[in-house]
Amino acid sequence: MMKVRISATIPEDIIKKFDEICNELNYKNRSNAISQALYEFIIANKWTKQEGKIAGAILITYPHKESENLTEIQHDYNDIINASMHIHLSKEQCLEIIAVNGEAKRVRQLFKKLRGLKNILSAKIVTSAY
Ligand code: NI
Question: Averaged over 70-80, what is the pLDDT?
Fold first, then answer.
C-alpha cells in the first residue's frame, strides 16, 4: 500500500499519553500506531455513513439539570429507542445509556440532537453489526 507523509499539530499532553500507550503496547514506531488509531477511528465512525438498519447504544454524560431536555428528545424517538438506563454518577452528573435499533438515518438524527444539547460532557455511539 502506498504511504503518504502527513503533518499534524497535536496538544502535547495528548501525544505524551499516546506515546506512553504505544510503549506499553510495544509499538516499534509512532507511524504504525497512528495508522492503526486512524483506522480504528474510521471503524468507530462507520455509522455516520451506514445505510439501512443499525443497532447499538448511545452514551451521554451530562449535568443532571439537563435531564428534562434529554427525556423530551427521547420521547420523540420512541420508535427507535428500546430502553434507556439512567445512572447518577455524582450529585451533579448523570450517565444515560440509550439502546437504539432502527433506521440508520433516524439513529444519526437522534444522536446529533442529543449531542447538540447544552452542557453535554460526552456523547458516544457504539453500533453493532446488524
Ligand atoms: Ni441522575
Answer: 96
